[in-house]
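ugh ok fine here u go
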Amino acid sequence: MIYIGLAGWGDHDSIYPNGSSQKEKLKDYAGHFPIVEVDSTFYAIPSEKTVQRWVYDTPDSFQFIVKTYQGMTGHGQGKMEYSSREEMFDAFKQSLHAFSETGKLGMVLLQFPPWFNCKKSHVDYLRFCQRQLNNYPIALEFRHQSWFYPEFKERTLEFMRTEGWIHSICDEPQAGEGSVPIILEATNSLKTLIRFHGRNIHGWRKPSHGNWRDVRYLYRYNNQELHEWKEKINILKNQSKDIYIIFNNNSGGDAADNAKQFIDMLSIEYNGLAPRQLDLF
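structure:
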């Protein structure tokens, strides 16, 4: 099965033509897509009450890809809101209960920062994360190219297969060490994640001024680029039972349109989506 959705549900104006309150947006979103990436969990671990509301607002078949809190992947260097790493992981796992108990947890995503390169201490930390989250399906995304250098690529993939990681395959600008190439290899026979970040190479590197997030994911995939990915999907379907695809190219609001375009291109019709509000006037 191929599941297609977006990163977050709050900023996609094209699927809320009549406007939606912030509290109603997830309900409306679930009328368009069967999955969503929860990116707010990167900035703060949500309360169980908040997660229960998200679960309640979505259909039975809906699935969440939950991005881990930034402290767990080292993005918040120098900031430690918990007394230990274990306490931080425990707090995050507590927030997963409602997702997991209702069968709506597609996977947990650990996206590591560009400085997290391929070396033994980082491999050891990945094993620590695996032990902490071993009751959940967990996806791994690298941002440092060294993991896929020729001398490390096969060992990285074999490590991910052996340890049970879901490969988060990226389509992103090729901007040196701080980005990874497209590696069409599933490392988990059940699930594979693909994340479309866009190809804006000039916006990918952090500028010295301005709002980086306004340009980092500013990109609209054209028809040819998506057709090329249609062929790539055919390769991955032979390696993994379910493929989850997230469009994250939303600095300019292009993610929803590209996701709908790709759903049509792949001739997918989803059953069990939330009922949509009728646009009568």
